[in-house]
Write a structure and sequence with these properties.
N-utilizing Substance Protein B Homolog, Chain A; 4-stranded antiparallel sheet; alpha/beta
Amino acid sequence: MNPRRIAISILLRVEEGAYSHIALKEALLKNDLSSLDKAFVTELVYGTIRRRNTLDFIINSFLQKKTQRDEIRCILRMGVYQLRYMRVPPSAAVNESVKLVSEFHLESQKGFVNAVLRNIERSKDKDFYEKVTDKTKRMALTYSHPSWIVARYIEKYGIEKAAELLDYNNKPSRNIARVNIIKTSIADLIELLEKEGIEAEPYKIPNTIRLKGQGKILSSNAYRKGLFMIQSPSSVAAALMLDARAGESVLDTCAAPGGKSFVLAQQMDNLGEILSTDIHPHKIELMQKGFQFLGIQNAEAKCQDWEEWNPAFDQRYDRVLVDAPCSGLGVLGKRPDSRWRKKASDIEALVQLQRKILNNAVLAVKPGGLLMYATCTLTYEENQAQRAWILENFTEFKPEPLPYISEAFASDKKALERGELEITPFMHDMEGFYLTLLRKDTN
């Protein structure tokens, strides 16, 4: 099937409520495409979704009335994305978009699509936002984010840093992999990957590498053998900073899909005990398969709802990790459609959910043990305020310095000493993340 036709089918599924990464993965598995075509489809889909707000604003400025058909709207969006953000010849962007109209038996709309796209191409130097005087709204259009997210970024970081963060969210995710040191070493894995035609180099977080190129990575023999997994370096860093030791008992409360548990198992040399819990049975099954695939022998996954207390966990664990459900405002680049699914009103509900989970998770920590609270968001309410809440309501916990694991955090030494770290794209060139480490009194 034509790559653009595949991309449109994915975009239509997302319009109907599907998650972009799942719809894309299923389509790429179903269709036999070259590595270049896979990369092209991925860029069309993710780029069009990321820039949806901007694309609609531009398209609407050339329409007398908003088009109601999803097929036409998606074709126009994808066409404008190629014209504005990709190195696709304008003639190809327009002509291939017009051809797509016929795929949906909408011949009467071909002239309309052709006219709109050609008018937009002729206006490529126009400032479409010149009449938008509100800074927040203008940035929302320039960087294609909901205005409420832009406003929050500006409030916390100022306009300049907010712009850097918004820009980072629109860049394709880099392929950073965590090396499975249970099965191999960084040097041996890089050598093996190079034999398969995949360039790789050590990355700034321990036991991670940066992979160059697309397409071959997940079909490589090294991946099939479980020698590496794609994982956010911020997530790897958080797990490493829990500093789990061989022979200890570790609880990962909100563990799915299991990435941090995998890191902890390697850190513990496959010795000791890790319990990885989640509320969804199908995710438990996936984590169990992950443990087997990676050769992890000291971990198991079980269902547990941490809004409810289970006495079996009482003061049982040396280290407890709570990577809580959150608004995800630090990782908006990872899932392009996530920015359009979120609402400002979600945050207060998430704060209350996080506190319910923490209320029970703190009870699982042994005297003298450690609690790590982490999120992949950047809101004060879900991060710094939650740390203050824990310290105020559970006075047996005190801040514990975070270990210095990488020069990537050279400017954060004071924060590490007080037991908390906020990872931001404009400071660390990694996805946004927050973590704090607290030690329970021995009494």
